[in-house]
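Notebook, bench 3.
Goal today: get a predicted structure for Amidohydrolase from Peribacillus cavernae so we can plan the truncation constructs. The sequence was checked against the plasmid map this morning, with no discrepancies at the termini. Length recorded as 371 residues. Pasting the sequence as submitted so the record is complete.
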Amino acid sequence: MNSDKMKKQSKFNHGIIDCDVHQGVKSYEDLKPYMPRVWWDRLNAYNATLPFLLYRPISLERSDASPGNELPAGSDPGFAKVDFLDRYSIDRAILTGNLLSVSAHNNPDYAASLASAFNDYTLDTWIPSDDRWLASIVVATQDPLLAAQEIDRLGSHPKVVQVLLTSGSREPYGQRRYYPIYEAAVRNNLVIAIHGGGEGDGINPPTTAVGYPTTNFERHNILAIHHMSQLNSLVCEGVFETFPTLKVVFVEGGLAWLPHLMWRMDKNFRGMRSEVPWLQRKPSEYIIEHCRFTTQPIEEPDNQELIQMLRMMRAEKTVLFSTDYPHWDNDSPLFVLNKLPEEMRRRVAYENAVELYQFNVNPIGAGGNSR
């Protein structure tokens, strides 16, 4: 389907910025040139990237997103260009990778080396293949000082737009041991993205607050609790007072939980603000100013209820579009954006990301550049 026909079907003609596209490697052998030889044997091991503890009856990636020859979906930038960027007339796509358990490894040096190798592979293989791809710096959070070094190493690259953490962590991200990561992000004018992954794996706490679930269905239903916990920690611990220019995107964690969490935080702040004397504003005000949330996996009530929910969370400022390509439950632009009123659609599809990431205001297709 050509881009003109796709735009006609989608009923809008402004740009689209996708804030969550998962690229990978064809084989972990591809990372060896970027890693010290001491880690090569471990890279070949079955648990090199921490297999999930739960049986998953549905593969994480869509089979029709595979480039063929038994290669993983999302492993070929040329195929993804045609199958995704061109098909949906995407102006920019932020790559978030597939190292979603990197912060669960027991060995912080191996985890940091794995993340660094994946970053270099992305910059060498994906970024040059199309001007629309943009990169995240994936970091392992076990050692925040090593993570900060990685941010400083790559933070000035013109195609790097954010630092990616996984929502699974040993401790909440508001705690001060993580400050070196935020300092480095601010120093390099980069956004922090917190993406689902690593919950209950390796050294991280159980998947739920009451232990491990029995099925992946049970786990999948409550993944948003990890984003909620990290957001609550960042606000209550005063991260946005310490780093007043820091912006944080919560990726692939849903949306419907945000209004109730903001209301609850504001209500409790009135009665317990003596515990957090560093907070100068209501928690919801920090969230609206500093935090953004991606659409996928968007909740799907009746359309008017969806619009009401989005308005309660100030979607015209706080929500970014994402597909989660090439995962099995990804959302196409035609599915999500056509549900929204025109002005909200434009903000969510394009303008909010332009403002957050400080992109050129013109879509690439109209002659703008990629950053």
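The radius of gyration is 20 Å. Residues 210 and 244 are 34 Å apart (CA to CA).
Flagging this for group meeting.
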